[in-house]
Design a protein that fits this description.
This protein is of the alpha+beta class and 101 residues long. It is built from three helices and four strands. The protein has a single domain (4-93), classed as 3-Layer(aba) Sandwich (Glutaredoxin), CATH 3.40.30. Helices cover 30% and strands 25% of the residues. A hairpin with a 2-residue loop joins β3 (64-69) and β4.
């Protein structure tokens, strides 16, 4: 199995705890809209502490999104996030004009 951080494409990883589950719904919405441009992975840190530790995730800043491009971390957002802010980030990163509600 290839480790997450060596996948040669854009990968967005959401690290969360079950108490922050509402951010998972936002992440799923982003996945539906951008799944043809990136791989979306959700990691519950309580069940996967070794993965969270390998990305140096601080549980005080959950949820945390890590963006990986060509095997390297290129962006990180710590704390709650708004759908529209994430859409703007993803659209800007991929050089597209996106419409959103």
């Amino acid at each position: 199995m290839t480790p997450i951080n060596t996948t040669p494409s854009t990968v967005l990883i959401l690290f969360y705890q079950t108490v922050g589950i509402e951010q998972c719904a936002v992440f799923e919405q982003l996945k539906a809209q951008f799944s043809n441009q990136a791989k979306f992975i959700m990691v519950e840190v309580g069940h996967n502490p070794e993965v969270a530790n390998s990305f140096e995730i601080n549980t005080a800043t959950l949820p945390t999104i890590v963006e990986i491009n060509n095997g390297k971390e290129t962006w990180r957002h710590m704390g709650a996030f708004e759908t529209n802010d994430m859409i703007q980030h993803l659209a800007g990163f991929h050089g597209q004009d996106m419409m959103y509600a």
